[in-house]
Amino acid sequence: METTFKLRQLPKFAKLSITGFILALAFGYITGLMYVDDTTKLSLDGIEENYNGNSLANEPIDDDTILDWDESLEMIEPMRFKKSKQELITIIHTHVISFALIFLSLSFLIYFTSTPIILKKILLIEPFISIVLTFGGIWLLWLGLDWLKYIIMISGSFLTISFILLSFFILIELIKK
């Protein structure tokens, strides 16, 4: 599995191009994490609410409840409705394809680093398992298997850890002389 060629042997311009690619991916990944934080508060209940809606969206409005304006503003929780099948398919489709291509390119690059072989093998496979578990879990959560929010949280965390490690090891290799 080892190769004699390493990324550190590339010309400076090629190293700069790959570094720019990794940094651009990192910027995109971080903004994606910001979006996930904004929509789920990085919580199990937030994950479920994001795809299946919350109780406010499913409860009828009670006309007997009268609150003053300031009191009602403090109690406001945004209504979230269950995503439609079309919305969910679009989210899963675009994310699975994008993540697969991102991790394919990172896997290709990590292959040409001096990262320990056992770690390299894990980082070549794990992201693809996490992609399927995360987005397959979202689909099944939407279908009503609420316990899958735990799998989504764990596999999504592993996906992020993999991204960080892959990027780190590739950048370290590019810095080496």
| Gyration radius over CA | 21 Å
H/E topology pattern = HHHHHHH
**Assembly category:** single chain
End-to-end CA span: 23 Å
Q: Main sheet, how many strands, which sense, barrel?
A: none
Assign a percent range to the helix content: over 70%
Discrete helix count = 7
Overall SS class: mainly alpha
- The rough form would be described as elongated
DSSP E strands, number? 0
How much of the sequence is in beta strands?
under 5%
Structure summarized in a few sentences:
73% of the residues lie in helices and 0% in strands. α5 (85-111) packs antiparallel against α6 (117-142). The protein has helices at 12-40, 44-52, 55-58, 69-75, 85-111, 117-142, 148-175.
Folded structure, characterized:
The mean pLDDT is 91. The two termini are 23 Å apart. Helix 2 packs across helix 7 (148-175). The protein has 177 residues and is an all-alpha fold. It is built from seven helices and no strands. The chain is 73% helix and 0% strand. It has a domain at 27-44 and 84-175. The longest helix is centred in the first third of the chain and has 29 residues, at 12-40. It is elongated and about 60 Å long.
